[in-house]
Model the fold of this input.
Amino acid sequence: MSDLLHSALRVVLLVVVLGFTVWVLIRALKRSDDAAGLVFKWVFTAGLMALLFFVAVPQFKKGGFEAIVALGLTGFWGLAMTLTWRNSLIDLVANPIASLYDGGRQEVEPRPLYSIALAKRKTNRPLEAIVEIRRQLAAFPNDYEGVTLLAGIQAEDLGDLPAAEIAFHRFCDRPEAPPKQVAAAFTQLADWHLKMAQDGDSARAALEQIIRRFPGTALAAQAAQRIAHLAGTEKRLMAAQEGQPVAVPEGVRNIGLLDSSEFLRPAEMDPELQAAAYVRQLEQHPHDLEAREALAILYAQHYQRLDLAALELESLVSAPGAPAKRVADALNLLANLQLRGGADYDTVRATLERIVERFPDLPAGEIARSRLSRLRLEFKGQKETPSVKLGVYEQNIGLKYGSPRQL
Done:
């Protein structure tokens, strides 16, 4: 049994050695620039090895003149091996060092090159730049950098916004186009419609493409936020384009000699007017997260209506596709308003625990855990505020627009 085991082990070892040798030879053959030459070297080396072991070694064992002949054959074998493998041995030693500078035999991933197109664009030759970009895109049709560069030259250098829109649509209509790049393309297109054509409707249509293609995602939420503030952006751009004069009131003279400068403090906007403006904004754009946060703060601080503030912030938290940072900020804001509005410890703790549950691996979750550990100290440090006697107006303040709409 022992002899059988040893024989089996020798067979296994022989198979492993032969398999490894075959793997090395195949790998070398694949990486070689001259496969036929490499095979010739192997065959020639095998012949030289046969000459050495079957001719030179037996002659050397006989001694005398045969040994001298065997010694000459051995020298011939060494010289032939040197001439055959000298370049390969040099490469074996030099390639690791040279690879530090030229990258060695590592295959470089083919990529489009836009340096020529950029140079032509800088020298005010946009049409030639477009030709060069199209040449690169013919080989790499899904390259977002090239598509963006092409659309940028068409829109900014040639003033051909429809052509830029066609270039973006061709890229975005591909099924394999990444969502983030599609959203970036339509966002850039919206910016061009605003800045170059003062066309708010076309900008809105471009942003709505993002919502239509990626409903319920963070990309859609960001596009909806842009749409909510589109009117203000359009007005500012139009005013800048038309060159409307800006009236600057004359400053107060000798301000350092006045007894008091309190009258110079700008008047604060009426909170009721602010709340009404936020309500109108949310009726038109229920996805405006900034307006919803601001309205929640007004409800809690000015009207002492923590319940309405909580409804607004809960609507923001449950919005599909709302960014994680925005949700965490809304829950933190709710906890702050609850703490200042007189909510009990368990209520505030439950709000902070929601942050930990939703974002356990994000910095927001770690901050919430840290705050939970010192929440009782926050309650102790909270100063008692005098009760505010509300007026006899309707407690829902006339600003209700139903329960806050879901985004």
Q: What stands out?
A: The CA atoms of residues 145 and 293 lie 37 Å apart. The first helix runs from residue 2 to 31. The chain has three domains: 2-101, 115-240, 277-381. Residues 277-381 form a domain with the Serine Threonine Protein Phosphatase 5, Tetratricopeptide repeat fold (CATH 1.25.40.10).
